[in-house]
Amino acid sequence: MLPERFCISMINTLRRGPYDAPYLSGDSKTEWLIVERTGPDGSILMVSEIDIPKGTAPSVPSPDLRPKHTMVALLAECGSDDRTCNFLALRNPLPDVTTRATFFPTEGSLVLRKSDRGIRLLAFGRCAHSRGFQAGQGVLHDVPAPPPYPEGAFSWHFDATEISAAA
C-alpha cells in the first residue's frame, strides 16, 4: 500500500524532447529528486529537482538537499489495490500550498507505484514558461499553448526510484 504521507529522495532518469513531439525524447540524464506526498488523504504530490550533482547527494532526504524547482500534482485516482496512484500535474500553483522551491508550472501525468523494492515514479508531461519576479523571488509563469518561444518549451519523461537509507 502506498502511504498517504511521505518525503523521500529518488534517483531519476530524465529525458527531454520537443514540446509538440514528446515521443521524440533525446538522451537521458540522471538527477536527484525529493518526492513528497501530503495534503488531505495524500491528495497532493510535490516533486522537486535538486540543485546538486548526483555524486554528492546523500541517499536520504536531509537539510543539505536544496530544491531548485517544484512541480505540484493532484491525486486523480488510486488503484483498487492501493499500490498505484495517478496524479495530474498543475500549470498554476495552489493558493494554500507552499512548495520547497520555485513552483514549476507543467502539465502531465505522474504515476506512483509501490512494490517490495520501494516506490517508483513514472511521469511525462510538457512545459513552457516565462521568467519573472514576485516579492523579490524568481518565479516561472505558465505560457499557454502554443508557446510564443518554442525553444524554451519542452516535454519531459521521468523514471525515478526510491533510494533507501540502506542503499
Explain briefly what this protein structure is.
The chain has 167 residues and is mainly beta.
Low-confidence stretches: none
- Assess the beta-strand content as a share of residues: over 45%
Indicate how many domains the architecture comprises.
Answer: 1
Overall shape: globular
The secondary structure category is: mainly beta
DSSP E strands, number = 11
Please state the oligomeric state of the protein chains shown: single chain
Percent helix, as a range, is under 10%
Q: Measured on Cα atoms, how large is the radius of gyration?
A: 16 Å
Instruction: Quickly count the helices.
Output: 0
Mean pLDDT: 83
Largest sheet: 8 strands, antiparallel, barrel
What is the N-to-C order of secondary-structure elements (H for helix, E for strand)? Answer: EEEEEEEEEEE
| Distance from first to last alpha carbon | 22 Å
Strand ordering within the main sheet: 1-2-3-4-5-7-8-11
Describe it.
The chain has 167 residues and is mainly beta. The protein has one domain. The protein contains no helices and 11 strands. It has strands at residues 6-18, 28-38, 44-50, 67-78, 84-89, 102-103, 107-115, 118-127, 129-134, 137-142, 154-162. Strands 1-2-3-4-5-7-8-11 form an 8-stranded antiparallel β-barrel. Strands 9-10 form a two-stranded antiparallel sheet. It is globular. The chain starts with 5 loop residues before the first strand and ends in a 5-residue tail after the last strand. 26% of the residues are buried. The model has no long low-confidence stretch (mean pLDDT 83).
